[in-house]
Amino acid sequence: MASPGFPLRAAADGPRRIGMPRALLHYRYGTLWTTFFEALGCDVVLSDPTDRSTVARGDALSNDESCLASKIYLGHVASLVDSGECDAVFVPSIANVGRRRGFCTKFQALPDLVANTFADQRIEVLSCLVNEVDEHKSMKDALIELATQRYTGPREAKRAWKAAARAQEQAERAATLRQMRALSQLEAARTAARRPEDAPLAILLAAHPYLAHDAFMGGALTDLLESMNAVVLFADEADRERSLQASFDFSDTLPWIVNREIIGAITQLHHRVDGIVLVSAFPCGPDSMTDDAIVRCIQGKPVLNLTIDAQSGTAGLETRVESFIDILRYQKKGGYVGA
């Protein structure tokens, strides 16, 4: 029997091979989560980049009302389950990281969605709850609690968190510095160009990170823009805290943190880009509202609003992007002035 005040330590029965779907908030917190579990002595198995088979598998597992990003997430979980290389899949439930810093409800429901979708599979859904508003539980609190329940003692759990938080901070700083260097190189190219229309175009890709950086959803778009002599800047690689604070000048009531950061990045970079490409996954609820507000309220820059769905054809996308770039170059030459 344990002595009073010294409860028995929980058995370290946590799964050691952790599957990590390369989708949704992995593109925001992937470094944090991977480093945390590796610091606990786990092997992290990352699913392969999204391809057509991932989309098809996720689509078959989802209902019609699910957004494309959620379908792709299930496709990634399925690939991890089928691989047999992991004992559990990490699927956190994330409601918010503070007031007016919420996430779409799909992120809160993901553990239940995955558990029910793969109920017949012999795979554990490893989860934790992040909800600072209602539960007063931050990402730090949630991960440390998970670690102490399944893996180790409080001291080791806190040490793992510190390593993960440090790695996440370094990754975010590196992304911001990379974008700042791209802006500096862009300004140098503009200065060196003999004519304004000869300089590369600066395009701000304003989208959720899981769209902008996913090989299937955003990769082809980025490649297309770069092939047309455009420098692609990413909204999520602007300074997040500055973007978040700037968003409150746009709206005091907007509840979703990522949409806030996108809006704030647009206001920060508005004067440094030639055009803005808004990208949404069909049928995203938060984007359907905020994208409309951006198009109506952000003035002075051309905006191309794209919606990506599960269709395999890209001809329509290519035509719209090429037309958008042609319009921007025509403006560079002085077209539409006084029109």
TrEMBL record:
Question: What's the source species for this entry?
Answer: Eggerthella lenta (Eubacterium lentum)
What name does UniProt use for this protein? DUF2229 domain-containing protein
Location of the DUF2229 domain: 17-236
Alphabetical list of Pfam families matching this protein: DUF2229 (PF09989)
Top-level taxonomic group: Bacteria
